[in-house]
Design goal:
2 helices; alpha+beta; 8 strands; 4-stranded antiparallel beta sheet
């Protein structure tokens, strides 16, 4: 075997060994960034019926909702027969599948804003002692669709400091 052939063979072998032991880059799954599945729909009335109510013998009515089949959507459930200070439940959706429920037992939640990748929720804070409910303030939490977290998730950012709004 000629010296050139031996050198090329050794170089090719070394390159193969380096390639075999070199760390591989982790592939990032961006499937969750695609459009909604064909025929995607969410029966919001059925969701309200099947979700346990805030009080015994009290259910939910469907409130504001949008983008349920998008990357990050929301469905507000309002207390049936409730008032402005009655509990609100917010369900977060990705491509028609429920991801999360926010918040737990928070009295009132309002939509602060949304896009295909975020939902901002304004969560009522208890009013100061001896203050009426109308004087209550709101803290904002922003949920962002994070496709890089495994199969994706709705990651909360917040609550944001007082005075910062989205």
């Amino acid at each position: 075997m000629s010296r050139t052939v031996r050198t090329l063979t050794a170089t090719a072998c070394a390159a193969g060994l380096v390639a075999a032991v070199a760390p591989t880059a982790n592939a990032i799954n961006t499937d969750s960034l695609g459009g909604p599945p064909a025929g995607c729909e969410v029966d919001v009335e059925q969701v309200a019926e099947e979700t346990p109510g805030p009080f015994p013998d009290t259910g939910w009515t469907v409130g504001e909702h949008g983008n349920l089949c998008g990357n990050l959507g929301y469905l507000f459930l309002e207390t049936e027969g409730g008032t402005l200070t009655s509990p609100t439940k917010v369900l977060l959706y990705h491509h028609g599948e429920q991801l999360a429920t926010q918040p737990g037992d928070t009295p009132r939640v309002l939509l602060g804003g949304h896009s295909d990748f975020h939902v901002a929720l304004r969560i009522q804070q208890p009013p100061a002692e001896d203050e009426p409910n109308a004087e209550a303030t709101y803290a904002t939490t922003v949920y962002v669709w994070n496709p890089f977290a495994g199969d994706g998730d709705a990651s909360p950012i917040g609550p944001l400091p007082f005075g910062i709004t989205v």
